[in-house]
Amino acid sequence: MSALKRNQQKNINRLLESFPVVLILGVRQCGKSTLSKELRPDWKYFDLENSRDFDFIDSDIQFFLNENSSSIIIDEAQELPKLFRNLRGLIDKKPQQCNRFLLTGSSSPELIKLASDSLAGRIGIVELGTLKVNELNSKALSPFYEIFSNEITQEKTIQFLKSKKTSSKKTDFIQNILKGGYPAPTIKNDDLYFQDWMENYFQTYINRDIKKLFPKLDSIKYRRFISMLSELSGNIINKAQLGRSIDVNEVTVRDYLDIADKTYFWRQIPSYEKTKVSSVTKMPKGILRDSGLLNFLMQNSTREKLIRSPNYGQIFESFAIEETLKGMNSLAIGKWDYAYYRTKNGVEIDLILDGPFGTLPIEIKSGTSTNIQKLKSLKYFIESQKLPLGMVINNSDKIQMISENIIQVPIHFI
Questions:
Q1: Which of 79, 127, 172, 258 measures 20 to 30 Å from 282, CA to CA?
Q2: Could you give the C-alpha distances from 53 to 44, 49, 57, in angstroms and in order?
Q3: Radius of gyration for the chain, computed over Cα atoms and rounded to the nearest angstrom
Q4: How is the beta sheet containing 348-355 ordered, strand by strand?
Q5: What is the 3-state secondary structure (H, E, C) of 142-202?
Q6: 165, β-bridge pairs
Q7: CA distance 179 to 29
Q8: 385, 359 in Cβ contact below 8 A?
Q9: Residues forming a β-bridge with 47
Q10: Is the pTM of this model over 0.90?
Q11: pLDDT tens for residues 236-259?
């Protein structure tokens, strides 16, 4: 994996120049350790899941930090919560000195709170996902994301996008959807290894990570919950119905959703609230973050099974949303957010991006073309919110206008 360049590299280097500590967060096995070592190959490396490293640091953490006050990588920092409190005292002795510690963390709902509370103003936080397609193919991030560097306008944004050439083999892209982005099984390109790796990964997540974080949790019911959740990726979640299916109450379903989200297994997508429409649905919607793991859980082991799946549209949507958000996360554009929109009257928008660039509503369709008649919700939202532009992401082969203010963008350009 050492040859793969990650989109977040520039961001992490920028934050290290601005903060004493940078924390890379993400799901297990997404490449955090590898990236840390590549960014700072000369720094000392400690892994807190290694018993020797853990005991060495834990036995006298103050002595450790006095001896290692700079140029240090500490992997799986959530294993030692007191590390953050002790780092604060060390950093405050030389508050202007940046580029000192690079930490990684995964599968810990309390990690962000711990880092933010103990190291507020002293730490930069970055989220790293599994491999985005451009990273897997050793290509630069798509110029698509340049549109978010400025305010989105009908004339300039459309002109910029239409000036870009797109090229990709859609069959290869479907294979990307099938396999997802976990580095180890994707790069090896061995179907049997892929299935074995995914099975082991899922078992480890349920039987080790979750049990360690939540020892009182019913792991059998949580496993059933995750399996059912995979079928609901891209859909609005009815907590009461889901709870009845696994014999738990709505409060437990809410807790399970929160756990899955904060361990980077599931991404909760909030309802869009910057609207005066009173009939907006507030029920949670979400996606299983990695499409390879999603297909494994749904037993889509081949390309043929994937494209014949009755859930192919939802799988395509989940993949497109996560690909888009991975790209957005690598940008230095200030505060931005994402949401979905649905009313009780059936008006629905799959993804809404909102930030300094404005508001961009996006519909996602798995077909190679999209009829304007299928975009009534998008058209209504653009008009009601007085927006300059809406977008359709689909499996087409070129960027083109579908209507006066709706532009089609192929999935392979995202």
A1: 127
A2: 12, 8, 6
A3: 22
A4: 337-342, 348-355, 358-364, 390-394, 406-410, 400-403
A5: CHHHHHHHCCCCHHHHHHHHHCCCCCCCHHHHHHHHHHCCCHHHHHHCCHHHHHHHHHHHH
A6: none
A7: 15
A8: yes
A9: 75
A10: yes
A11: 999 999 999 999 999 999 999 999
